[in-house]
Specification:
Blueprint (H helix, E strand, L loop, with lengths): L1 E5 L4 H12 L3 E6 L10 E4 L13 E7 L5 H8 L4 E8 L27 H16 L4 E4 L2 E3 L9 H8 L4 E3 L6 E2 L1 E3 H14 L5 E3 L6 E2 H11 L6 E3 L23 H6 L6 H14 L10 H7 L1 H4 L1
Parallel strand pairs: 1-2, 1-4, 2-3, 4-5, 5-6, 6-11, 7-10, 8-13
Antiparallel strand pairs: 9-12
Helix pairs in contact: 1-5, 2-3, 4-6, 6-8
């Protein structure tokens, strides 16, 4: 297939580009060329908001839009003169207001979520613009992605703690559930969409089960070959973002539409082992490493 991927150099878009290159598809990527490219891709080196005639007359079997965060991003791509058969947009579970009943379903109204702020609001507008102009587009709403090429300081944080034989400090709400989706499962599901063309066009995607913070940390330590030892931070006045990598926000997606098409997902323990193996050889992959460990070291008297 002829595939156009927006991005192609960072985490989800990078993994996706590599996946479809391995399938021997012809993969064209749009990015600014500031990072190393996946071998075998065709690069259009340009800012996606300034496409000009770079795509005029080009036809793709599918556009995988992984880096659209605003309606403008969608608009400039559609106005570029590009032609395509299928369009798959990676949106976000952040489009569901936190006041919606859970688990969130695709039939629910989308709108502003105060936890995610402008990020979620802009994803809402991007979805609306896309469906207005490409009614047959597919929209995917994931929870937290994980897997190799992760560039956020999430799994890497407990991995670092495990490698340094540190006690892990749990937040007060350590039973809060987290839902994940492996980037390899995303690619598998995209293959199903463009192969089967299901009648539904909006899908929550993710593992059917969620795990508690404590269980997630336990699995991260086990992926590193270690056993987690815990302490608990009881002081709710200490801002969570000073020492932990997720919002204090529990939500759950109903992924029954996804499971009707793709019955299985990678077990979280297996996916974390794969990610740890990659991260242990690529510790500099995190672009914005948060100073959680420094905070914990400097404030031990407050945490005991």
């Amino acid at each position: 297939m002829e595939i156009l991927i927006t991005g192609g150099t960072t985490f989800v878009s990078k993994y996706t580009a590599e996946h479809f290159v391995r399938r021997n598809d012809h993969v064209t990527v749009i990015n600014r060329g500031s990072r190393e490219q996946i071998p075998g891709t065709e690069l259009i080196q340009i800012d996606r908001t300034q496409l000009g005639s770079a795509l005029t007359g080009r036809h793709f079997d599918v556009i995988l839009d992984i880096t659209a965060y605003t309606a403008e991003h969608i608009q400039t791509l559609l106005d570029s003169g590009v032609q395509f058969t299928d369009y798959v947009f990676i949106s976000s579970s952040a489009v569901y207001p936190e006041t919606n009943p859970q688990p969130f379903t695709e039939e629910q109204a989308i709108g502003f979520n105060s936890i995610w702020g402008d990020y979620g609001a802009n994803k809402v507008k991007a979805e609306q613009y896309l469906l207005q102009h490409v009614p047959g587009a597919y929209i995917l709403r994931p929870p937290y992605f994980y897997g190799i090429y992760e560039n956020l300081y999430r799994e890497a944080f407990p991995f670092d703690c495990a490698m340094q034989d540190r006690i892990f400090y749990l937040p007060p709400n350590n039973g809060m559930k987290l839902q994940f989706f492996h980037v390899a499962d995303l690619c598998r599901f995209i293959e199903i969409l463009i192969g089967k063309h299901p009648s539904d066009h909006i899908f929550n995607v993710g593992n059917p089960e969620a795990v508690s913070i404590r269980d997630w940390v336990t699995l991260c330590y086990e992926a590193a070959g270690k056993t987690a030892q815990f302490a608990r931070i009881e002081d709710t006045s200490i801002p969570l973002w000073n020492y932990f990598c997720f919002h204090n926000y529990e939500y759950m997606l109903d992924v029954s539409r996804q499971t009707a098409l793709m019955a299985d997902t990678i077990p979280l323990a297996d996916g974390l082992k794969q990610e740890y193996e990659w991260y242990s050889h690529n510790p500099d992959s995190i672009y914005n490493r948060k100073p959680y460990l420094e905070f914990l070291d400097q404030h031990k008297s407050l945490l005991s």
